[in-house]
Amino acid sequence: MPGFGDPEARLLIVGLAPGAHGSNRTGRPFTGDASGDWLYEGLHRYGWANRPVSRSRDDGLVLSDCYITAAARCAPPDNRPTPEELERCRPYLQAELELLPAVRGVLALGRIGWESWLRAAGWWERLGVRGRPRFGHGEETVLPDGTILVASYHPSRQNTNTGRLTREMWYAVFERVRHHLDTAGLTSPA
User: Fold this and answer.
1) pTM: predicted TM-score of the whole model, two decimal places
2) Which end of the chain has fewer CB atoms surrounding its CB within 10 Å, N or C?
3) Domain of 72?
């Protein structure tokens, strides 16, 4: 499954993998499933999407200043990609990052999205064990190049139905990212 969004985006969202009944079926990230309901409603609420839902690739959804991708490119068994699968998929994520030069903020959904982006962007090795940011919902880090990394629990049903991730928590990460992109000098490179 390829990524989706604005090629001039300042915001990059990195998810886990295509959902078997969502993006694996529809061909667009977070489209046609409950996780996508959460994601696109949040993106619409904070000005990155022209509509709050995504049901199919031809539903008219347009992202502005935002691009969505995933750590793994195929729907993994039991929704858990293996380390080997993530390693094999990493070159695709790296290639996407090279095609998105304006990205100044990254919202990593889940520990796998967070670690995969750090690895694909080269920060995992450069920062080393002691310098790596911590994963936790709402954790944010400004990297040496000025990119802001915000971590969030993934909006999966396992997290949203149990209350591990609430709407208030979800909106808070979007508010922080929006604030950073709009007021903290994280403008698109000239």
Assistant:
1) 0.91
2) C
3) 4-183
